[in-house]
Amino acid sequence: MMNILGTAKGITLVELLVAMSIFSLIVAGIISSKLEQQDQHISQLQAVEMQQSGRAVMFLIKKEIRMAGFDPFMQDNGAGIIMAGANNLSFSIGAGDDGKDNDGDGQVDEDRELETIAYAFLDPEGDGDDMTVSYNGAGAQVIAENILNLAFTYYDVNGGIPGSLADIKSVQITITTTTDVNQLARTTHNNTRTLNTRVYLRNMGL
Question: Is the pLDDT of residue 22 over 70?
Fold first, then answer.
């Protein structure tokens, strides 16, 4: 019995260190795989959110810009493009039958009354990524966040550069959405989605 006990060997320090190293590598691999799966899940959610946000905003802009110059009573009410900037656009539409006092004079549905709408890439909330709309000169309302860029390009009836506001017959809208900086996956840059569409101003003499 004494001989057996005397010849029994335990685990050496080197063997223990090797075992711990192997175990650490296995744990690190599991954690890395888990984090990668989590990042992929976050990225997929962000992509869906960006796509939905961009499409919703684009639908609203298209719908309203297409109404620029609308004159329901054919009274030559002066509706049309008011300002055409690279990142902002304002226009007016006839609003003599919308049940609102658009010019603020206390009378509703006056003849030749106009509603003005202004879209802009502004930052009223101080986070650098807001798209706003303003109606009848009122304060800008944020309609979309996480917007990296909003751009307008203008064309005349021949597809060239318009010489004046009255020559604008179509508008190309480009919206680039991005991820919320507070919801980024572990990457070095934000994900982005860009949508483009061209709106023909059917009330502007096309």
Answer: yes
Q: What is the pTM of this model?
A: 0.69
In the predicted model, is pLDDT for residue 179 greater than 50?
Answer: yes
Q: What's the start-to-end Cα distance of the chain, in Å?
A: 107
Cβ pair 145, 77 in contact under 8 A:
no
Total domains in the chain come to 1
Would 21 be classed as within a structural domain? Answer: no
Q: Answer positive or negative: Cα dihedral of 144, 88, 160, 81.
A: positive
Rounded distance, CA 71 to CA 204, Å?
A: 10
What is the pLDDT averaged over residues 136-162?
88
- Report which of residues 205 and 60 the model is more confident about: 60
Task: Report residue 22 CA to chain centroid gap.
Answer: 47
Complete DSSP assignment for 3-34: HHHHH-----HHHHHHHHHHHHHHHHHHHHHH
Instruction: List the domain range (segments joined by +) for residue 113.
Output: 37-200
